[in-house]
């Protein structure tokens, strides 16, 4: 996959995910901590798209931190959905 294809895919994922997270944030009745976590998650969605060239050139040195960032985003989203379902 070329750099432009990688960046395009990551921008599409970040854009769609941002829209979904903003909708989740606006309709959810979350605790104060979760309301502070969601903007950070939204910003974190755009980091892989901004660093697509580093991921491609840097190999594992950049891919592992971005993978961990993705796992952190995933856990916050799952926690937010769980809190909405519980309430």
Order of helices and strands: HHHH
Mean pLDDT: 80
For the sheet with most strands, the description reads: none
- Helicity, in percent? over 70%
Q: Provide a count of the helices.
A: 4
Write down the Rg: 14 Å
Structural class: mainly alpha
The unreliable regions are: none
Strand content: under 5%
Cα(first) to Cα(last) distance is 43 Å
Q: Report the principal-axis shape.
A: elongated
Question: What would your notes on this structure say?
Answer:
The chain is mainly alpha-helical. 90% of the residues lie in helices and 0% in strands. The protein is built from four helices and no strands. The chain has helices at 3-27, 32-50, 52-58, 60-86. α1 (3-27) runs antiparallel to α2 (32-50), α2 packs antiparallel against α4 (60-86) and α3 (52-58) crosses α4 (60-86). The model has no long low-confidence stretch (mean pLDDT 80).
Fill in the keyword field for this structure:
single chain, 87 residues, mainly alpha, 4 helices, 90% helix
Summary?
The chain is mainly α. It has helices spanning 3-27, 32-50, 52-58, 60-86.
């Amino acid at each position: 996959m070329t750099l432009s294809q990688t960046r395009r895919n990551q921008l599409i994922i970040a854009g769609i995910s941002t829209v979904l997270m903003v909708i989740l944030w606006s309709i959810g009745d979350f605790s104060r901590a979760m309301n502070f976590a969601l903007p950070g998650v939204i910003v974190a969605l755009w980091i892989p798209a901004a660093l697509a060239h580093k991921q491609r050139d840097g190999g594992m040195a950049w891919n592992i931190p971005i993978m961990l960032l993705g796992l952190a985003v995933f856990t916050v989203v799952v926690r937010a959905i769980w809190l909405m379902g519980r309430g």
